[in-house]
Amino acid sequence: MNLDLFPCESPTAHSEAIGPCAYVLRGFALPNAEVLVAAIGELERRAPFRHMTTPGGFAMSAALTNCGRLGWTTDRRGYRYTTNDPETGLPWPAMPEMFTRLAHDAATQAGFADFTPDACLINRYESGARMSLHQDKNERDFAAPIVSVSLGMPAIFLFGGHARSDKAARIPLLHGDVVVWGGEDRLRYHGVLPLKDKPHPLLGSRRINFTFRKAG
Ligand code: MD6
Ligand code: FE
Known about the structure:
12% of the residues lie in helices and 31% in strands. By secondary structure, the protein is mostly beta strands.
């Protein structure tokens, strides 16, 4: 049995623990930021950002697209992963090498070895867009962590507990920050407060969030 204070091991010098198995790696993606932004331009030509509808019938305020073997989608029938973009009928664009490596390296830094994502959900927020509290539970295997990369405008990330009503911590996420979580934190409720308009030099009045998962 593991009675450590850090059951997920190896919080390194540059990681900030926000839970027993959840870390913010400040600025981890900064060296890749410009290449990531350029890659989005290419990806969105093949799989445009769109405002999907929740099962409850609301349009999401963040626009989304995907790359990788599996892409996350929602419509009136529910949330699920698909191999093809429902909008175009085409397979989601392949995940660029550099994305896979970045996600793997961030996971390693946070103590999760051998992370190989097969899905990358890309959310695009404009001023006022938000993400209400939710759990990420459409993936087959909860043993793998989730790696989340923030670019562009800052956001306040809400990191709650295992019940929707649990009080949520407010964590500022800046351009280049990476959040990694797994283990006992994997199913915690989380969300994003409505974005304030604080234009960013690279992305203007937008925030882009990539979340890498092992979905299949
Ligand atoms: C966002 N992120 O930061 C929304 N989910 O824009 C998420 O919903 C999320 O950042 C799972 C793990 C990390 C995340
Ligand atoms: Fe999420």
